[in-house]
Amino acid sequence: MDEQRDFARFLNAVDVDGAIAEASHQRRLALSRRGLLAAAAAGAGALLLGRSEARAASGLSANDVGILNYALVLEYLQASFYTEAERSGALSGKTAQAARVVGATERAHVKAFQKLLGSKAVKRPLFDFQGVTEAQQAFLKTAVAFEDLAVAAYKGQAPKLQSSAVLAAAVGIHSVEARHAAWMRQLFGVTPAVNAFDKPATKQNINRIVASTHFIVAHPKMKARSKPQYTG
Amino acid sequence: MKTLLRLAAALAVVIAISLLWVGLGGSHRQGADLSSAAYSSLPAAPAPALRIGRPERLSSSRFISRWTTVRRPTLARSRPSASAPVVTELSTHAPEGTPNALSAIGARTDARSRVWVEVRLPVLPNGTRGWVPRRSLGAYQTLDTRLVVDRSALRATLYRDGKTIFSAPVAVGTSYWPTPAGRFIVRSELTRYASPFYGPVSFGTSARSAVLTDWPAGGFVGIHGTNAPQLVPGRVSHGCVRMRNSDILRLARLLPVGTPLLIR
Question: Has residue A106 got a pLDDT over 50?
C-alpha cells in the first residue's frame, strides 16, 4: 500500500489536469487521480486496482504496477525532452549527437514500459519545457538534472519491487541512466563520477523536484461550445 | 672446479625457475577450478520482465509540424529581438474563447540567450509571420496531419503522414468574398451550438477574409457544416469552407486542432 500511496502523492504533485492518471485504454481500471487520492486517504488496505485486478494480466502485483507507472512518467519526461530538443534543431556538435543517442534509448524505455503495463500504463502527460530544449547550455543543465534524477529514482524504488524479473529489468535500465548522467555531466563540464556511493532519492523528493520545474502542464482545451462567428 | 660450480649453480637456477613455473601454473589451474565450481553453484539470474528493444530513432518525417498556444499576452515582432518593430499584439484566447493556437515554424536565441519562436500570425495580410518570446508561449505539440483546401477542385483533403485519410467536396467563397489562400492553422473546434447554418461541428482557422474586415470577431474563416447541402460543391460562401454535415462529422473524427491548413 505504501507504494500505491506514494504513487498517488506523486500524481498529485505532477498530474495537473488528471491526464496522466487516465489509463490508456480502460478508464475503469481505476488509476484516476481522484481514485488514487481517495484510496490513499482511505488507507486501511483499500486496493487501488479492483480486487480482481490486483494483479495485472502480465502477472505483476499492484505494488509493482505502481512503481512501474512512476518510472514510466519519468521516462515520458526524459523521452519528450530529448525528442523536443532533437526536433528543435537548436543543438550542435557532441551535444546534438548525445541528445539523439540518449533520446533514442529513452523512447525505447517508454515503449517497453507501455508494452509491459498494457492497459494499466498511464498516459503521456503534456510537457512544456519552456525553451530549455532550444538553447544548448540550458539543455545540458536540464539533461544533467533529469539523468541524475532518474538514476536516484530507480535506485530508490528498485529495492521495493516484489518481482525479481522486474528488478532485473530495472537494474538494467538504471545502469543505462547512469551512463547517460555521466555523458551529460561531461558535456556540461562537471565531474561525471564524484561519489563512492550514490544515495537513492525518495519519491517525496522526486515529486518536489518534478513539480517545481512546472514542466508538466495541463492540456489546453481547444474545443468549445460557443456559437461560431465565422464569415459563413 | 670453478666450471663445475658454475654449471651446478646454473642448473639450480633452471630447476628453481621450472619449479616456480609449475607451481604458479598449478595454483592458477586450481584457482580456476575453484571459481568455476563456485560459479556453477550460483542460481541463474532471472530473466528481465522488460524486453528493451533497439533504440528508437526519430523518424525524419517531413510531415511533422509543431504548434503551441499563447500563454500570456505578448507582442509579436518582426525580428527575434526585443527592440524590433511590433507586428501585432497576441492575446491568450482566440475569438471563439479557446486558447490562441499558433503554428511554430522556427526558433532562434538572441544575444542575451533568450529564445524567440517564429510563428504564423492570425492577422492581415494573411501569411504574416512574427517572432514571439518563448516564455510567452505554452507547450509545443506535434502533429503529422495536414489539411489542404483546393479552391479550384472544390475539395478538402486531410493527410496523415503524407497519406490521404479524408477527402470531400466543399463550397468556398464567391468572387466577391473569396476564401483567402495561404498557410494557416486549425485552431479550435466548436460543437453543440444551435445554428443550423454552421452545421453540427465547425473548426476555427487563423485565415481571415481580406474583404469582410468588419465582420464580427474579425472576419475569420471557418470550416463548417451547412443547412444547404445542395450548394456543395460550389462558390457560394462569404469565405468560409462549407461541407455537407455527414462530411464535417467524419472530418471531426480525424482532424486534430493544431493541424496546419493550406488553402490553395
Answer: yes
